[in-house]
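Translate sequence into structure tokens.
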Amino acid sequence: MAKELNKNGALRVLMDMSGEDSASNLAVVALEKLLQYDLAAKYWHLGTLSQTDIIKDGFYDTGAHKPGDDFKSCKYLMDKKVDNKRAVLYIGTQGSEPEPVDLKSESSTTGSSTNIKTGRGTAKGKKSHKEEKKEELPEVEPPKEIKDTSKPRTDASFKEYIEEVNNTVKPLPTQIDQIKALATFVSNQMGGPVTDLSKFSCDLHISQLKADLKSNVIPIGFIKRGIYYHRALLFKALADRIALPSSLVRGDYNRAWNEITLMDGKAKHYIVDLMGGPGTLMEVGGHAAGVYKKL
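Result follows.
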């Protein structure tokens, strides 16, 4: 329902109303409720997801909200011609499949019929009485499979990630152990530790993915070389699958990070390093956390 309302312009109306000096509490509350039921729109508009915002299939990250922009549906973004702008990152275990190939291929030059699925060929020539009789019956073509174009391609890697972290990370005894193990796992899937960002480029990799998929929308598991915002989204999506509380915060210049809370007499908040030292916890407000969030 919330996604349909957003698609029909409700989000823009409420954003405009809430931004006015005379905005009513009703408009502000309505906007908050709408965003709560469409986390993709919430992250686009506010740039943050809390520990209680659980990412589910169908979530996508379009990048930071710019003044005057409207929030676009995933279908709209998929239908756009491939461009050189920032890729849209998609989270989901279900998606569309590639177009099925024809099962049979006829060759007029060799006089044979080949079934591509089985690889078997049948020579053409004199037919038996039974074969001629069979040919008199009209052939009924099986119904063509309809490709679901409303979703990106099926993300087999992300499915495997979920299974892996459920088997290896979730059973760990402490929250700190889980955080460090998940951070290491995410880093490994995205190209490993990165100490010098100038020597680690993912632009060519992402461009190639967009060209191969013929889409600006890329499922997260397809990305094998990722930086801050790729890794932070994957960490949050996987942490939510194993009930590991984590927030997602967008920064400037393609920075994003995850914040977690640990209880040590009192609540302490940390940023999880997914780049240079995967699994290292940096206290929010400290120097290391400040460096991680900025260029």
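Note: Residues 175-189 form the longest helix (15 residues).
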